Amino acid sequence: MSTTTRAGAQHLLPTADPLGLIAPDGTLVDSPGLPMPSDDVLLALYRGMVAGRRFDTQATALTKQGRLAVYPSARGQEAAEIGAVLALRPQDWLFPTYRDSMAVVTRGVDPVRVLTLLRGDWHSGYAPAECNVAPQCTPLATNSLHAVGFGHAARVKGEDTVALVMLGDGATSEGDTHEALNFAAVWRSPVVFLVQNNGYAISVPLAKQTAAPSLAHKGVGYGIPSVLVDGNDAAAVHAVVERAVAAAAAGEGPTLIEALTYRVEAHTNADDATRYRDQDEVQTWLARDPIARLRTHLTARGLLTDELAAQVDAQAEADAASLRERMNTDTELDPRDLFRNVYAEQPPALRDQEEQLLAELREAHS
Ligand SMILES: Cc1ncc(C[n+]2csc(CCOP(=O)(O)OP(=O)(O)O)c2C)c(N)n1
Ligand SMILES: [Mg+2]
After folding, report:
1. Three-state secondary structure call for residue 332
2. Are residues 284 and 202 located together in one domain of the fold?
3. Which of 80, 90, 94, 193 has CA 20 to 30 A from 168's CA?
4. Where does the pLDDT of residue 1 fall: very low under 50, low under 70, confident under 90, or very high at 90 and above?
């Protein structure tokens, strides 16, 4: 019989209350051992969140104008989206979901390219290797396996690259998430799992999703250090993700972070959330707005003047106007693009399909 003693799990457990640095009223919260980001980072978080929200509002408006097929809003989740992305180093990779357009924009990808997928023009509008951002995944949790495979490969190749994968609360019920967590833990893959618990998976509330004490607790069974953080506190999200990225880069393996936040809008513009949730609940979360919280904090500390706040708003407005204008043009698509970039050498069956399509198109236009 093995005489190996098993270490306790205490060091892996998340805190009972979410870690935080700034309270909803802008005052400081003490989270032992969690450093407050620098003033420059706090201002970058503020800029990113204001820009992110304005982008999000514009994208929703574009669905109403028929310029976008669908858009899943991340309004209210700006602290988690931007806090996490700004904690990445340039060489790290982001593995986002359909909801994380804001995060992709924050990583520096042109918003028009980000919205290409949701416009239905192309599979992905950006080249992943140019921006270190994988295509946004609609199949839930598949991106967790992509991130772990990517992180593992980077480690085998001796590269200093960390993969950050974003998941929703609902995605934690998928088998893929558990396979990814297990593999990453056993192989100490340089991966940070960020679960944005926004309370709902379409109409399914968290209480029907899991009986676990928190989603962060799910990491413990795999031997992964797990963190519960206030997902509406950009400073705290940035601090915990930065710490997890550093640990992964140092060869310490993965971290699971649950960011507690809320989906303020419906699942997408095609969903009516009033059918399954109470408006009082939405109001409670609106009072915990991540942008107002950081603004209050920065203003009280004299870091954000009225003039600077107006500049940040004006820049976000100008970016939204540019996005609106550029999305208001019709795109010319080449149907043959469907067959390109799939295989280095096209298999015969696909070649037949391409020829069949081209023949049909010729006939339609003759
Ligand atoms: C494998 C798979 N099953 C089901 C769906 C349908 N679906 C799309 S979004 C969604 C809810 C996901 O909720 P959550 O993971 O909490 O993310 P959120 O939308 O709240 O960001 C479901 C079930 C899907 N896209 N992929
Ligand atoms: Mg959700």
Report:
1. coil
2. yes
3. 90
4. very low
CATH code for the domain of 173: 3.40.50.970
Q: Is 273 in the same domain as 341?
A: no
Q: What's the pLDDT score for residue 38?
A: 98
CA–centroid distance, 84 to ligand 2, in Å, is: 17
Q: What's the pLDDT band for 342 if we cut at 50, 70, 90? A: confident
Q: What is the largest CA-CA distance in the chain?
A: 79
Q: Which strand (E) or helix (H) includes residue 124?
A: none
**Residue bearing the CA closest to ligand 1, atom 23:** 201
The CA-based angle 257-160-232, given to 5 degrees, is 25
Task: With cut-offs at 50, 70 and 90, classify the pLDDT of residue 3.
Answer: low
Q: Whose CA is nearest to atom 21 of ligand 1?
A: 168
Residues 366 and 295 in one domain: no
d(CA 154, CA 365): 49
Query: What is the average pLDDT across 108-122?
Result: 90
DSSP 8-state assignment for residue 269 = T
- Flag whether 4 is in a domain: no
Indicate if 200 belongs to the active site.
no
User: Is 222 in the active site?
Assistant: no
* Distance from Cα 200 to the centre of ligand 2, integer Å: 4
Distance 123 CA to ligand 1 centre (A): 19
Reported as a single tens digit per residue, the pLDDT across 87-108 is 999 999 999 999 999 999 999 9
Is 145 a pocket residue for ligand 1 (Cβ < 6 Å)? no
Same-domain pairing of 303 and 366: no
Distance CA 127, CA 167 (A): 22
Structural domain for 326, as ranges: 10-333
**Same-domain check for residues 250 and 318:** yes
The HSE-up count of residue 290 (CA atoms within 13 Å, CB side) is 35
Q: By C-alpha distance, which of 94, 103, 97 is closest to 53?
A: 103
pLDDT, tens digit, 9 for 90 and up, residues 78-90? 999 999 999 999 9
186 plus 318 within the same structural domain: yes
Pull the structure tokens for residue 268.
């997408």
Asked if the model's pLDDT at residue 198 lies above 50, the reply is yes
- Total structural domains in the chain? 2
